[in-house]
Amino acid sequence: MSPMKLCVPGDKLCSTVDCIPGTGVYLRHGCIYSSLTGYVLKKNEGEELPVISVVRETETQLLPDVGAIVTCKVTSINPGSTPLKDRFRGTIRKEDVRATEKDKVETYKSFRPGDIVLAKVISLGDVQSNYLLTTAENELGVVVAHSEAGAQMVPISWCEMQCPQTHGKEFRKVARVQPEFLQA
Amino acid sequence: MAGLELLSDQGYRLDGRKATELRKFQARMGVFAQADGSAYLEQGNTKALAVVYGPHEVRGARSRIRHDRAVINCQYSMATFSTAERKRRPHGDRKSTEMSLHLKQTFEAAVMTQLYPRSQIDIYVKILQSDGGNYSVCVNAATLAVIDAGIPMRDYVCACTVGFVDETPLADLCYAEEGGGVSSLALALLPRGGQIALLQMDARLHQDHLEALIEAAMTACKGVSKVLDQVVRQHLQEASVPSAE
């Protein structure tokens, strides 16, 4: 692999005439400067100019943005909206649990505390509230859940999961797993 | 104090340095694995440890959330064994609060906080041994720690404390020089662009000397930036060598 150029914050990389700024860089007076310590990467992405960005060995903390798919864990359920406690707090409102029959949603039959849920960020929220999430798509919803007996449940349909030990069925809003993630 | 010559006739200071010479610089990055970023810095006999956490969700007071940028939370403290006499109150006293505020203002100027709305970046600096230039050493250590954490910054932040003695600016003051009736000025600089992040002085100085003193401080900061740059590049090389195998 050819040696990549090291750079530190404040290093002038090039001007906006030569490249388009990517991640890890910033613009000042028509020139592109590095904002991270790492390696300079120039990529041709099909546009007129190459995209220049600075990458590190280890990725830093990312913030969820609107449209990002996030994996979350349910910690408490209340009628209405309650913040979920995790590294970032998000809320799934009752009307965002399902795409169809929004008013007939029973939260207890969709999620339980401890479930791992795949959701989408719809809004960053305002000053007081948290990230707003939604599971109103086929691919979003509960991915991993444990039954009341404690065993990990197997999804049977979009609204039910079954415990392999007790064979009891429990209601959840189940996510449809993408085909590429299914093991043969 | 009789007999204490801050600047001798031959141009040597108390510790044998010349007027524009900086103290011996030693630094290490990534000293703690559990923190997002950390650095240890020694400038002469002043030793500081800086630790950075973040960016993460705002903890504690929800009212501190800013919707458009990250909040920087700095805490400056001194170890009880850092000074000649055991320090009774390591943090929470007026000086530490003021120092924490200055650090916060300095890093808000350099860190690109608009990339991380509604989050918080914590910078904790502890002085392990205090021998003058506390603020400057803290800023330099914190710069290395922020770089180690991978938080984007416009430029390095380099700081230096300078003083004015016998019509000569002295760079990088030590404790004896700071206390010996010298007007000291602390400057934090973004070296590439020459932008001043913070300038602080609470002593008396004739306005004719101010220009020269600021110039000397900026030169000293640029010298510090070269050393910090060396430390960062060396750390980067050391970190990349094992992964290249």
Q: Can you walk through the features of this model?
A:
The complex is a heterodimer of chains A (184) and B (245). With 184 residues, chain A is mainly β. Chain A has 2 domains: 5-55, OB fold (Dihydrolipoamide Acetyltransferase, E2P) (Beta Barrel), CATH 2.40.50.100; 69-178, Beta Barrel (OB fold (Dihydrolipoamide Acetyltransferase, E2P)). Helix content of chain A is 0%, strand content 32%. Chain A is built from no helices and 15 strands. Chain A starts with 5 loop residues before the first strand and ends in a 13-residue tail after the last strand. The mean pLDDT of chain A is 80. Chain B has helices at 94-110, 134-149, 175-179, 207-244, and strands spanning 25-29, 37-43, 46-57, 71-78, 119-129, 158-165, 168-171, 183-190, 195-201. The radius of gyration of chain B is 18 Å and the shape is globular. In chain B, helix 1 (94-110) packs across helix 2 (134-149). Chain A binds chain B through residues 1, 6, 8-12, 24, 26, 28, 33, 35-38, 56-61, 63, 87-89, 124-128, and chain B through 36, 54-57, 62, 65, 67, 112, 116-119, 147, 149-156, 190-193, 229, 232-233, 236-237, 239-240, 243-244. Chain A: Pfam families: ECR1_N (PF14382), EXOSC1 (PF10447). Chain A: Keywords: Cytoplasm, Exosome, Nucleus, Phosphoprotein, RNA-binding, rRNA processing. Chain A: One of its GO terms (biological process) is rRNA processing.
